[in-house]
TrEMBL record:
PROSITE patterns: ATPASE_C (PS00605). One of its GO terms (molecular function) is lipid binding. It comes from Sporolactobacillus nakayamae. The gene is atpE. This is ATP synthase subunit c. NCBIfam families: ATP_synt_c. The chain crosses the membrane at residues 49-74. It comes from the Bacteria.
Length: 75
């Protein structure tokens, strides 16, 4: 097994892991904010969706680079 295949797999796996952890922390904070102040649900929802987009950018980028490494375009 070449190192490029290993590197590509690690990039894809850690990107997915980081997205899962980030989403868990984000929505845990969102739900705790709603529990503390229910009238701010609309504001918190909009802000959490913006943060979700930022959190989800990491796995998309890591999957893209992982695929590039797997198919030998980079490296």
């Amino acid at each position: 097994m070449s190192l490029a295949v290993l590197a590509g797999g690690i990039m894809i796996a850690f990107g997915a892991l980081a997205a899962g952890i980030g989403n868990g922390v984000l929505f845990s904070s969102y739900l705790s904010g709603i529990a503390r102040q229910p009238e701010a649900q609309g504001t918190l929802f909009g802000q959490s969706m913006i943060a979700l987009g930022l959190v989800e950018a990491l796995p998309v980028i890591s999957i893209a680079f992982g695929i590039l490494v797997l198919f030998g375009i980079i490296g």
